[in-house]
Amino acid sequence: MKVLAVTGYKPMEMGIFKIDDSKIEYVKETIKRRLIPLIEEGLEWILLSGQMGVEIWTGEVILELKEEYDIKVGIFPPFLNQEQRWPEAQQEQYHLLLDSVDFTQPLYQKEYEGAYQFKAKDQWLLDKSDACLILYDEETGGSPGYFLDKAKAYQEKHEYEIYMITPFDIDETVQEMMMEDPAYWLN
């Protein structure tokens, strides 16, 4: 596998409403721990659409990993100015990420017109990647479910891996990070 598409929840779907919420650290660490073995096995590119939440956090994780690994990240928003209605802090975060990635290009060279742009983005990510990683809870549902459904249908006709990160995986990371702190063992 050389190319991986990554997606998942938007912050509000995870109960995260501040850009500096401490929960983000655990989500990013879980993503990092999932990506490192894939990179060590030959993963070369991460593809993102750049939406708020998991995709932006993944981009930030990749920028950190670039210090140690030869990995590239590309952001392919479905249309121009996808961030224009986002809160200002998330817009700034997005622009910093766009300035730092290896490649970025909107799939449609026009602003939002309709849901067809999101559907086309999902199909483009599937067509251009060898596998996907989705942060999603099938019991809770939410917006990543649309991509997951498309990926499962795509998988029926193509050799395509679907990797998942679940809330259980994040809980496991929280526990591991707590146990890595020497103070944890003093109680």
Automatic annotation (TrEMBL):
Gene3D superfamilies: 3.40.50.450. Pfam families: YpsA. InterPro entries: YspA (IPR010697). Belongs to the UPF0398 family. PANTHER family: UPF0398 PROTEIN SPR0331, UPF0398 PROTEIN YPSA. This is UPF0398 protein N782_02905. It comes from Pontibacillus yanchengensis Y32. The lineage of its organism: Bacteria, Bacillati, Bacillota, Bacilli, Bacillales.
